[in-house]
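Worked example 3 (structure in, sequence out).
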């Protein structure tokens, strides 16, 4: 089973950028579609973006596309989330999650059913005004 480890969170001012990393390790780690999610205190988990296990296809939440960009480095089995023009409402714990042989949109759908195979421990992002 894949293991996920997020990093790159922190406290920034509004308008700043951050790049989060999700490192996947374990057997067949490259066979997993990976997505990014976030959850703010008192709110439901929110899908951000995902990348397919092969072919590099991506899928975004429409409201975040444009400020957030997901990418994948196959050689290191790392998925990145570049976040630009951060706003205080982006403050949340950010998680990556994975499912074997999943396409990008499937990651979102599986999350809704709570069927994703693996989750990371999360990295906190705090944006102050």
């Amino acid at each position: 089973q894949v293991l996920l480890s997020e990093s790159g969170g922190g406290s920034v001012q509004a308008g700043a950028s951050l790049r989060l990393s999700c490192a996947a390790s374990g057997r067949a780690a490259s066979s997993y579609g990976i997505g990014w999610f976030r959850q703010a205190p008192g709110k439901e988990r929110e899908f951000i973006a995902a990348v397919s296990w092969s072919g590099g296809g991506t899928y975004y939440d429409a409201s975040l596309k444009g400020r957030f960009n997901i990418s994948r480095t196959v050689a290191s089995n790392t998925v990145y989330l570049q976040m630009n023009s951060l706003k205080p409402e982006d403050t949340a714990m950010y998680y990556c999650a994975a499912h074997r042989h999943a396409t990008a949109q499937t990651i979102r759908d599986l999350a809704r059913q709570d069927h994703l195979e693996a989750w990371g421990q999360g990295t906190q992002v705090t944006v102050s005004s």
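Notes: The longest strand covers residues 92-100. Residues 104-112 form the longest helix (9 residues).
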